[in-house]
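Posting this for the archive.
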Amino acid sequence: MTEALYLVDAYLREFDARVVAASAGAAILDRTAFYPEGGGQPADVGRLIGRSGSEWAITDVAKSAEGIVHRFEGPSPPMGETVHGAVDWNRRYAHMRYHTCLHILSGVVYHQYGSDITGGQIYIDRARMDLSLPNFDRVLAETVVAEVNRIVDQALTVSVRFVPRDELDRDPGLVRVEAQLVPDVRELRVIDIQGFDAQADGGTHVRSTAEVGPVTLQKIENKGARNKRLYLSLEPAKLPPG
């Protein structure tokens, strides 16, 4: 299996690894900082560079039973080859900011309105979240986003911790999605926003809510009796060092 470096350090954008499986257009590494698509967050893209200087442009990354698969066009690097990976940092950091933004939004509606999450999707320039709020309109949406911005402005620390799966029995609020979507693992990865909210999650996040920056409500949609959708956007941000 592939060691998922992004689970511990989302700011790691370059790394060295060894090719442990390969086929035309795909390779599995023993370790990677590339995020595979999942949980509403798109896959990273970037490149791999071999010892001879050969390069492979990574166009998609996905999980498999054998490990994390890196996809590209053309022949694969040789088995056992040591490669240097470089993540497209502009894209990754945008996803990190939006993912943390959605966690803040989720925390606001959960703690203040008792709403769970029914869906969500992150893009490089926007994000959406679906909520189980029966009475939802533009006024309520703007109230929620104002509270999100208040949390952002507090510059709360965002950290990662790992807890035993049975922690869910003591704190079911760690999961905001349907229970069957929680992976069958012995440890849960939890994203902890200092003094505000904690949620089980496998995505990449910024280190402080301040990095999210001002949040703007684009629009809302009614997708059903208990499924309301918000679209959010963020201001462009100066990239931090990796």
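Helices lie at 89-113, 138-153, 167-170. The two ends are 25 Å apart (CA to CA).
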